[in-house]
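Title: Prediction job returns without error message
Component: structure pipeline
Severity: low
Priority: P3
Assignee: unassigned

Description:
Job completed but the reporter wants confirmation the result is attached to the right record. Sequence as submitted:
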Amino acid sequence: MKKLLPIFLTSIFLAFVLFLNVFVPTLAQNSRCADPNAVKDMNPSELSDCIGNLTRAKNQSVAATAGVKKQVDGIRARVAQIENDIPIKQKQISDGEARLVKLMEVLNDAIRKLYIATQGDCPFCELLLSPSISDFTKIRAYQQVSIDQNKALITNAAILVRELQVQKKDLEAEKIGLAAVKVKLDKVVADSLAYQSTLSSQIASLSARQQQILAQRLSSLGIPLFASSGGSCSSDLTNGKSAGFSGGFGLFTYGVPNRVGLNQYGAWGRAKAKQGYEEILRAYYNFDSIEVRDAQINVQGYSSYSLDEYVKRIYEVPDSWGDQDGMEALKAQAIAARSYALAYTNNGSGSICTTEQCQVFKPDPKGGNWEKAVNDTAGKVMVQGGSPIKAWFSSTHGGYIHSSGDIGWNGTSWTKNARDTSGDVSSFSDLKNNAYDRDSPWFYCDWGSRSSYGGTAWLTATEMADIANVVKLASVDSSINEHLYQTDKPNPAGTDTWDAGKIKQELSNRGITPFNSVSGISVDVDWGSGKVSAVHISGNAPDPAFSGSFFKTYFNLRAPANIQIVGPLYNIELN
């Protein structure tokens, strides 16, 4: 073991060298990317570069850690084998000590006899007393044998004592050395994983910052968030709008951006399917119980109201739903509105806004079916862990419920992932037939418009080919992202935006065949989660497959005007 421990320590040292030479320099190189103050001032290209660098660093770290872990696992296996030997060695030492006790008893007697034999040695006397020379010789031989045996016994005892001392000392050194090795092994892996966690956090932060550009475009759409809002899809397949051309593409999204909590049109569909308000609420939230609470709610720009009086002034869902077997949906909405108000204001200690950013409030009670629903559920709120839950809601989820963490918010225990349908879903046709919110005017929409093409969001085949080329170029070189924005608006990075010709040339320069035309686009869908998993593009170039989120990001950055895909589940229609 004295020879093995240095080998282990050398292995640990090499693992640390790997960490220092591969991980730490990369982290130092990306120090600006890790600086929140620096990130705030970055343009989209710089942000994209940082994300690319940090992602590569993380991938390198993961690969290197896998190699280190393999070595570490081998060392740990040997350490475990040596640790298993320690009890055996301890028993051997213990058995040796027990033998030594018995040997010492014999040894003490041997020492006494040896002392007597050597101190009382009188060969002349023995010669005189012996009957003959022959007997004298035999006696002397026996005595010498006894003396030699006693000397050997003493010598062996001394050697055993020495060996036991050395073994005990070496065993303690082994224990200390093994403990040190195990600490170093744990530190190598822990440092590697901590480094990867840091990179993941930085990537997430940068990605969130980069998404601000997309968020600005998304906000320009003015998408109705709640069921009482007006507005309609840009070029709904049933609204009669015509783009004035054929052979084009429409990107249609299921639901509106906020798909967390109560699906208002879904609640209405569930009510019409004879579900009660608590069953409806449990479909959309995790909570312990429904309890009666009250508080004074301070409304910004207005007075304060009791909880129920405040909720009577909320304008979120159509009152007419109460006339169409939808009263349970109104009751569910009333309980959600109370829960949200209490959580948002911390049980009345803060104030709440009056717009869709909180809940739509008007100074006059709404009356009608809504007031009846409020009265029928007086004071009731959803509670988890003793506190009201922040019961987010939106008009249309598109057949799926997502948790707050799924859409980029902080993760919460009361939001959930679920399919919001009355049956299984394995196709867009199933979703259209079985989704509880299928009657929403925003269930299946394309979003955005422009003055040309009848004010619709249809894209020509040429425009779609350009977008496909942008996605293809971005997938092989993230360093040129600042040049990939839409061509009909100023470049947000302050540099030149590459037009369709330049994009194709850049692809050709990299040995990649660009699309001159696109004949079709299809999507693969994860029907369990309600997300597009892959996008396939067919045309004159080889069919590339992009992840659904990657395609969506670069489509939204390149598409003209404010045409957008607004959620994770979408489909492509041909005009």
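Comment from assignee: result matches the submitted record. The first strand starts at residue 249 and ends at 254.
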